């Protein structure tokens, strides 16, 4: 019998496996994906949001606990557990030396990500390199890894973990860490969560999945059905507006279109529907997927002009390009006159001061609903560009309720030997909204906590048996 069983293969699972092994426990990690697709959504990440009191190697300035907390409070609208959120924040300040010991390397933020140079530490080689480093370290330390091993059920005794089942095979362990992701690639569950809209559409049918196809929520559903305490709204997620031509799965970061704040967003009726200049892009980019999901046909269009070119990370796919707005409308399939009228109304409302996309500048609109509160400049310089965008789900926020030890709860009581980390519990911290890099902060913090807790539970059982 193994001491600690870790179910999952991404950042949180690997952090748990490494911590448990370092604590002296024997560890088996079960990854549902084949080896070439290992790592879950973590393979698509690129940075970690970090609290720090002074400049640190790749991090500039200071990013104290209270500022991190206020940033999180703002994006979640207060739908967060402050004790658990602050635990994540504090853990983010002391994990990077440990990460380096396991082969993770960091680099300064590059052009296009300079807004994050103070708050986020970037992984050299991105999330794939991080995942590979952790797997190499885990294998060196003697962690057993099985690929293509999706767990379909757990055997529980009350709230106590007994064994996991894989296609009839039974795997016992003294303690278990669940880190198998959300249910974003389960279309049926997404349909159930979102239902039909006023137009009779199933919005979820038009969602693209930015991350792995293997996160189907099988164990999440199983645990909830077994009486585990859950938290979060199943319709809430890290949901980004991504290029409508992106693949159904595993498009990752490169499918993002980051020019929204430099122009306007319209729906398929060629009408604006939200303030594009509400706040800095890293803090607000993740609201746009949900906003687009609420529009007819679950599609939106980002419109910019030549003045915006060079001020955002170039998209992988080139956008529609035209010398006139009617021509751009035709390319995008929008009503020509309505788009022209929308842009004329926006242009007339612009009050341009000193444009500066690196600060919350004074370029805004007046007498326009919805307003654009920053970076508002007329769209009047050819050529014009347009990008069709759809909701891209990264991970879902419905999860299992936890405490500071990462224990799964049943009827309000913490399990003695079943723990959870990563997307399966992120809803404790993220009730809604997102800010860049915080998913990795949650996964790293609670992965490390869960691994430590599981090892302690397992080794305590060994000690009792030997006494």
From TrEMBL:
Keywords: FAD, Flavoprotein, Oxidoreductase. Pfam families: FAD_binding_2 (PF00890). InterPro entries: CobZ, FAD-dep_OxRdtase_2_FAD-bd, FAD-oxidoreductase_2, FAD/NAD-bd_sf, Succ_DH/fumarate_Rdtase_cat_sf. Residues 3-429 form the FAD-dependent oxidoreductase 2 FAD-binding domain. Its cofactor is FAD. The keyword rRNA-binding does not apply. One of its GO terms (molecular function) is oxidoreductase activity. SUPFAM superfamilies: FAD/NAD(P)-binding domain (SSF51905), Succinate dehydrogenase/fumarate reductase flavoprotein, catalytic domain (SSF56425). This is FAD-dependent tricarballylate dehydrogenase TcuA. The gene is tcuA.
